[in-house]
Amino acid sequence: MKQFILKVCMMLLAVTVTVACGNGAQKGDNAQEGAQTEAKAKSASNTGKAKKSKKKNKNKKSSKKKSIFTPPSAGAPYEVLLVAGEEDFRTGAVDSLYNVLTDDVAGVAQSEPCFKVSRINQAGLSKTLRLCRNIIIIKIDPSLYTTPKFKFSRNVYAAPQIIMTIQAPSALKFKNFVSDNRDVITEFFNRAELNREIDLLSQDHQPNFEEQVKKMFGCDMWIPAELDKIKVGRHFVWARCERFVRKVEQDISLVIYSYPYRSTKTFTEEYFIRKRDSVMKANVPGPREGQYMMTTRPFTLVSDETVHGEYAQLVRGLWNIKDYDMGGPFVSIARVDEKNQRVVVVEGFVYFPNQPKRNVLKKLEAALYTLRLPDELDLQRFQFDLDEITINPD
Question: Considering the domain boundaries, does residue 375 fall inside one?
Fold first, then answer.
């Protein structure tokens, strides 16, 4: 009984804690302003939603399981708290890392940072701020370090949480190290956020879409539950959510379609665009007759990726409606279904004019990675999580 009462008290305490993980932070903030963010805190979001610990590779050996006494982490997805000493602010070390984290999101027309970043002095890292979901600590000391290095720990003060430490003997070596590893840093936290979203999808997803996908493609997939408007076409399923956010129309969609796999030439940029435009023309009409969705050229970014151990084509780009002033970003993943000799494409696209699109687009991207092809359905221990970027665990 005492343990039960203690657990309830800890949960109530976590709910009442307010945090300042990124709320109110702006690019012009200095160290003193960052230290005052606690006074401007908002309520912790995602209360009670903790990421399940999963061991998949050597990095995750350092994972700390969430105990009943571990409070939920604070802050919104894609928020990062930078912690550094006063000298690190003066030397520009903090700015070098800040600039990397706030680089523009790929595949979005308007400028939007990859992460929302707050910066505070080491002395300002209070018990409240330690609950932030993503923390990077800068440590520069020639008496302690000889070479720059990454370290990270998981779920130290809250869950889900990642604390990365970047250490270096000098500000110059720190800046060079951050510049050389900018993609490692951003992708490490990006994948952590995608995996958190995948975990949430495993707990709550759209059942009608899942049923249609199994029926038509023999696949399985989780998508956000709010995408409850389902349209079915020929080798095509479209889930959609239309709503107004701050009096602005927001249209969120996710589609799945397939076409025969011919050869490796199937995965060229030109072939992808031609197939995509053909499918969208037949299934995603505009408001008037003769109008339909098409790919906006030349704004496509195509990359070869590995998803669940197999080849995948990742495409980011922009879409528009023919002869109509409407468009937005999309992200798609194409994979080969070897069992049925076809290409299965899953894609998320958003219409949210003049508003931030990063978080909603990333939420759709996380759903794309949950696709299980027919020959993956029977795997007893299929791992939905993306493999982490390899760095040294603490």
Answer: no
State whether 270 and 304 are in the same domain. Answer: yes
Do 154 and 302 lie in a common domain? no
Q: Residue 103's closest CA among 194, 189, 21? A: 189
Do the domain assignments include residue 385? Answer: no
Which CATH number covers residue 356? 3.40.1000
The pLDDT value given to residue 298? 87
Phi first, then psi: give them for residue 359, nearest 5 degrees.
-65, -40
Bridge partners, 320 (sequence order): 294, 327
Q: How far is the first Cα of the chain from the last one, in angstroms, to the nearest whole number?
A: 36
**pTM of the entire predicted model:** 0.81
pLDDT in tens, 175-202: 999 999 999 999 999 999 999 999 999 9
Instruction: Tell me how many domains the chain contains.
Output: 2
Q: Identify whether residues 222 and 291 lie together within a single domain.
A: yes
Query: Percent of the chain at pLDDT above 90?
Result: 71
Average pLDDT over residues 229-237: 96
CA distance 372 to 219: 6
Residue 44 is classified by DSSP as P
Do 14 and 114 have their domain in common?
Answer: yes
Q: Both 48 and 182 in a single domain?
A: yes
Q: What is the pLDDT of residues 25-75, one digit of tens each?
A: 433 344 334 433 343 333 333 333 333 333 334 344 344 455 667 899 999
Q: Which residues contact 98 (CB under 8 A, 6 or more apart)?
A: 27, 82, 117, 119
Burial 154-166 (b: 16+ CB within 10 A, else e): bbebbbbbbbbbb
Residue 363 domain boundaries: 206-369
Sequence-distant (6+) residues with CB within 8 A of 294 are 277, 280, 281, 319, 320, 321, 322
C-alpha distances out from residue 82 to 36, 71, 177, 265, Å: 14, 21, 16, 44
Contact 175, 93 (CB under 8 A): yes
Same domain, 343 and 316: yes
**What is the spatial distance between Cα 354 and Cα 236, in angstroms, rounded to a whole number?**
29
Same domain as 138, residue 9: yes
Q: Say whether pLDDT at 394 is over 80.
A: no
- The radius of gyration of the chain from alpha carbons, rounded to an integer in Å, stands at 22
- 388 falls within a domain: no
